[in-house]
Amino acid sequence: MKNLKLFAIIGIVLLLLLSGCANMKSSKDQFVGIDEKLQTRDYAGALAQIEAAKGNFYKEKEKALYFLDAGMLLHFNGQFEKSNEELSKAEQAIDELYTKSIGRAATSLLLNDNVLEYSGEDYEDIYLNVFKAMNYLELNKFDDAFVEVRRINDKLSVLKQKYTKMADQYNLSKDKNKEFKPGDSKFHNSALGRYLSMLLYRAEGKLDDARIDKEEIAKAWKLQGQIYDFAQPELDDYLTRSDKAKVNFISFTGRGPDKKANTLYIHTEDDVIVIGTTEENPRGKQELETLDVINWPGVKKGYHFKLQLPYLEMRKSKVGKIKILVDGKQETELQLIENIDKIALETYKLKEPLIYLKTITRTVVKGLLAAKGKAKIEEEISNPLLGFAARLAADVAVDATENADLRISRFFPGEALVGQVEVPEGIHNFKIEYYSKNGTVMWVDDLGEKEVSRKGLNLFESFYLN
User: Fold this and answer.
1) Side-by-side strand order, sheet with 459-464
2) Position 29 pLDDT exceeds 50
3) Distance in angstroms (rounded) separating the CA atoms of residues 388 and 395
4) What is the pTM of this model?
5) Are β-strands 245-253 and 459-464 bridged in parallel, bridged antiparallel, or unpaired?
């Protein structure tokens, strides 16, 4: 009877621990079935699904994520004013949460990121301004769109500084064992942001300012070749005088990256920890493949811990090429100007070393505490079976709290393509044809009859998120 009671107590404790771990795991249940809605362009249905998840899967700590997801779907659904309301809330939340995270960084070093508020990925914070600008243009708020475009470069100019401050705060923690340093990113100039700025200046007749932006686009290829590793769009005719109307197109395709978890293991030696992954050898036994070795003063040999690290996985677009038809005749093919996927990966490099060392620190500190707890159990419980059950409960509870933070917005596109045609002033029919990589037409976006003039912006947006 006494043993049964002890088993019951251990079971209850384990249940409570595991139920408390729900907040330490990222949920993606709110996205089940949403890809099918996007494939059929049912943005209203996708939006309804996201709104229904608010308060359940999107808790208060995911408010920035909800605003991002809702704001992007509202944009694709043509609800431009509401989209900007949600994207503005996301931007404000990201800014406030960053300030808050700096203030508490040293004291939150041992907290799993899943229990903290989601403060957005840097590429989300940058590209929300692109879509706010597009919203304002649809609402004929030209000056407001200009403000959003300028915000892109403002944010890029302080990107590295953000994580330098974060590293400095982590280094103040009493639990810090190794020095925190941010990573490095070469992304400091967005060709897409400059492209929008160039068009806006051109529409205002400020050709000198537009020319500067055109030169900055060329610099993006010259100085950031690891990101802009594709042919630069032809922009020679963009600022030349013409007796025709210049009509521009921006198409967004694919989907931004997803977050996945990579499970690793820590093995300790005296004053050293070894980070690795397990692989099966030819004899069918699991062996540790060493990925990293870190000096860790004070740790003793013989401990083994599990950890999870998030990483970004690109989601390839099905689109092979995009053609523009004017009045039923092919005029041009759109050209890639921004690989948003790659920029997401590039900006992620800044925070990746901080996530890596923070996760290792948390895992080692928590693992050593759990080991002490299990030693105490062995001293106090003489029954071997009960002792094993108690130690197992402790191990399961610790492992359950070590889940990678997989939160990320699901609805940013993966690529941006641009193009220009020159047509006589007046009304024209514009269509955008999306082709698969094997040349099959997947979808035709009929923009309808549009009136264009020599003066003005004449900018049209299309998207195909598959």
Assistant:
1) 335-339, 415-423, 245-253, 459-464
2) yes
3) 10
4) 0.89
5) parallel
Q: What pLDDT does residue 17 have?
A: 46
Q: Name the packing angle between helices 80-104 and 122-138 (round to 10°).
A: 150
Find the Cα–Cα–Cα–Cα dihedral 95, 111, 358, 264, rounded to 10°: -120
Which two tokens mark 112? Answer: 């799993």
C-alpha 192/C-alpha 133 separation (Å) is 12
Confidence band, pLDDT 50/70/90 cuts, at residue 42: very high
Query: Bridge-partner residues for 443, per DSSP?
Result: 434
pLDDT of residue 380: 62
Q: Would you say 214 and 238 are in contact if contact means Cβ atoms under 8 Å apart?
A: yes
Which pair of tokens denotes residue 146? Answer: 């200009």
DSSP H or E run through 290: strand 286-295
The C-alpha atoms of residue 266 and residue 277 are separated, in whole angstroms, by 9
Task: Supply 283's token pair.
Answer: 């004899």
Please tell me the distance from the alpha carbon of residue 107 to that of residue 114, in angstroms, as a whole number: 16
Torsion angle (degrees, nearest 10) of CA 200, 202, 203, 209: 60
For residue 369, how far is the Cα from the chain centroid?
Answer: 33
Q: 419 pairs with which residues across the strands?
A: 249
Please return the burial class of 117, using the count of CB atoms within 10 Å of its CB with bins 0-12, 13-18 and 19+: buried
* pLDDT tens-place string over residues 288-324: 688 999 999 999 998 888 999 999 999 989 999 999 9
Q: How far apart are CA 390 and CA 379, in angstroms?
A: 12
For 352-376, the pLDDT digits (tens) are: 999 999 999 999 988 888 777 655 6
For 415-442, write each residue's pLDDT tens digit: 999 999 999 999 999 999 999 999 999 9
- On whether the CB atoms of residues 28 and 62 are closer than 8 A, the answer is no
- Give me the pLDDT at residue 285, please: 60
Q: Which of 164, 159, 219 is nearest to 195 (CA)?
A: 219
